[in-house]
Amino acid sequence: MTPAARLSAAIEVIGTLLAERRPAADVLKDWGRSHRFAGSGDRAALASLVYDALRRRASAAWIMGEESPRGLVLGMLKVARGLDVAAIATLCDGSRFAPAPLSEAEHARLAQASLDDAPAHVRGDYPEWLDTPLAAVFGEGRAEEGAALAERAPLDLRVNSLKGDVDKASELISHLSPEPGRWSPLALRIALEADGKAPPLTSEPAYLKGLVEIQDEGSQIAAILAAPPRGGQVLDLCAGGGGKTLELAALMDGAGQLYAYDDDLRRLAPIHERVQRAGAHNVQVRSPRGKMDVLEDLEDRMDLVLVDAPCTGTGTWRRNPDAKWRMRPGALAERMKEQALILDTAARYVKPGGRLAYVTCSLLDEENVDQVRGFLDRHPGYRLVPPAEMVLALGERGMTLRAAALERPEGLLLTPRRTATDGFFISLMVRGDQAG
Ligand SMILES: C[S@@+](CC[C@H](N)C(=O)[O-])C[C@H]1O[C@@H](n2cnc3c(N)ncnc32)[C@H](O)[C@@H]1O
């Protein structure tokens, strides 16, 4: 496919996903099925155009003065890809498979319109209804935070110390030019190709042997700051597919006992194979079994309980630009209810003197500091670990992380703008010796 034909396809796909309110990934998959002639390069380039347009949906629409699929793609070429009007006009020449030529109005807007006078939610490319909650967290910086969340995310790997070290992993994937992480000593970062395509990492021998896992550096930091004790008893209460479970196991050097639970059996399912691949022998997966309480024997026994809570995922908008626009206020209210309930459940398992780590990939106070404050009000037996103490788990890098992150008494907030990671909130609490 020519670059112009890919643009036409992007306009078509965006038209479908907006009209049918369907996830971009589904629409792209359907498009691939009905256009078998398109090669993997075409499909990757198309996906990249579609996701870039979604990342910059508000600013692209502002530039073009309309939110049509064509307007979003043309505006994106200017705001995300930096193409000037002449370059865009060359692509849109109206030839077979190319988009129709630019109208006079489109030409004028692409040449002259700017984001200078746009409101924060447009410059930051986030839904308008989230302006107030984001202003409460970031104040005047919210547009810049949003803009950083509208960039593409790099591909981050975590080296599995149960299988080898960073040098060994770097050598095995040297053809991908990995760079060491800024904060996590386990992280390797791989830059994406110019069109946003990631290398086929899951086919690499280093991945197949369990030496590297795909995990954002922010997520890696969250598990490190939770500081699972070697030889201790740890419960990962919202383990999902096991991203943090595997890291906790490695941080514990495979010693002690790590229990992994999730109330969604399907989400938990991949963990079995991943634990095998990682050689994480101290992990015991506790699958939900209907109404049975499968964690009863862990009550009051855990040195650490990690709550990697279900959340709105506002911190991962770089990877899910689609979810950003589909998020509704009702979903936030729902997640807040779940978070409070899960925190209360988690408290049952923490032993006196044990710790409770609360993590979200959200930026919103409602899901972060407010949840922690609510928990502490309901459980006066717990106290906060000050972020200054929490970052000691990262050694010297902890100090620079603390300076870069947004610090609140309740925890640290990482963001793409501040720490070049996904957005993560991390809070640590300790149960006093008395009842929690
Ligand atoms: C942010 S995801 C976990 C991601 C995972 N820890 C990782 O690092 O890959 C949140 C998880 O919480 C689970 N969850 C939601 N409500 C729960 C509950 N009441 N008890 C346990 N897990 C729950 C969801 O099924 C989801 O898998």
Automatic annotation (TrEMBL):
Molecular function in Gene Ontology: RNA binding; RNA methyltransferase activity
SAM-dependent MTase RsmB/NOP-type domain location: 145-432
UniProt keyword annotations, A-Z: Methyltransferase, RNA-binding, S-adenosyl-L-methionine, Transferase
Annotated organism of origin: Ancylobacter aquaticus
Cross-referenced SUPFAM superfamilies: S-adenosyl-L-methionine-dependent methyltransferases
Keyword RNA-binding: yes
Annotated InterPro entries: MeTrfase_RsmB-F_NOP2_cat, MeTrfase_RsmB-F_NOP2_dom, RCMT, SAM-dependent_MTases_sf
Domain of life: Bacteria
Record-level GO BP terms: RNA methylation
The name this protein goes by in its record: 16S rRNA (Cytosine967-C5)-methyltransferase
Residues at the catalytic site: 361 (nucleophile)
Lineage: Bacteria, Pseudomonadati, Pseudomonadota, Alphaproteobacteria, Hyphomicrobiales
Binding site for S-adenosyl-L-methionine: 262, 308
